[in-house]
């Protein structure tokens, strides 16, 4: 079986941060889950440009280590980023922008149209890097879950575009609902039971975590949610918004699972949905 390749795009001025990222991703590599590629793989005397292009063409995931150094590198902006985003558009690979250090990444149009990590946009190496291990471990876990999901069911391709910004302007279509997730038909009582089950999960009961989950939903869903200061009504409005889109509720559950993992309240939510 061919292992999926994770390609790391970074500035050589951020070698230290890249090495820490490689250490975390190497956990997946050492357990036979991924092939990991950065330009450290280029041998002495090799054709470095050809090797990089070949690695990008084979990658299932492209990780962008975003810093001011990254955003001012001509090679990255003219070669690596466009090539990875083109494959994202045409072949459906995943491109993972990681905000590594403080920089004005919000001024870069194509980046503002992507879901960056960490989810709140705060740099991984903030506060002297005291949160770096925690944030990088979360990212490694998300990449693992993403690749497992791809292997199980595949993903949809983004719509065509022309410019670098256009390559990320159209989000992938929502994942089709599984047989266990109702699409749009739920009674008022069923919705109330679901809301109570969701509020038992820390990712929904905590307002900040709930905000992060909403921010990670497809734009058409998250922008249609009528937020409410009362938790129960806020979660009910989230459920209603998700039910208005095919696969919306499944997308919510998938997003929550990143935070909850196999926690008992999350399993109860899934069991409830299986009986609705």
Question: How much beta, percentage-wise?
Answer: 5-15%
- The CATH fourth-level homologous superfamily of the largest domain: Toll/interleukin-1 receptor homology (TIR) domain
Annotation, overall tally of beta strands: 4
Low-confidence parts, pLDDT < 50 over ≥5 residues? 155-163, 169-184
Sequence of strands across the biggest β-sheet:
2-1-3-4
Radius of gyration over all CA atoms, rounded: 20 Å
CATH topology assignment of the largest domain: Rossmann fold
> What is the number of independent domains?
2
Mean pLDDT: 84
Q: Write the CATH architecture name of the largest domain.
A: 3-Layer(aba) Sandwich
Q: How would you explain this protein's 3D organization?
A:
It is built from 13 helices and 4 strands. About 50% of the residues lie in helices and about 10% in strands. The protein folds into 2 domains: about 5-170, Toll/interleukin-1 receptor homology (TIR) domain (Rossmann fold, 3-Layer(aba) Sandwich), CATH 3.40.50.10140; about 190-275. Helix 2 packs parallel to helix 4 (about 75-90), helix 7 (about 190-200) packs antiparallel against helix 13 (about 265-275) and helix 11 (about 230-245) crosses helix 12 (about 250-260). The chain is elongated. The protein has helices spanning about 15-30, 50-60, 70, 75-90, 110, 130-155, 190-200, 200-205, 205-215, 220, 230-245, 250-260, 265-275; strands at about 5-10, 35, 60-65, 95-100. The chain has about 280 residues and is an alpha/beta fold.
Features:
276 residues, alpha/beta, Rossmann fold, 2 domains, 4-stranded parallel sheet
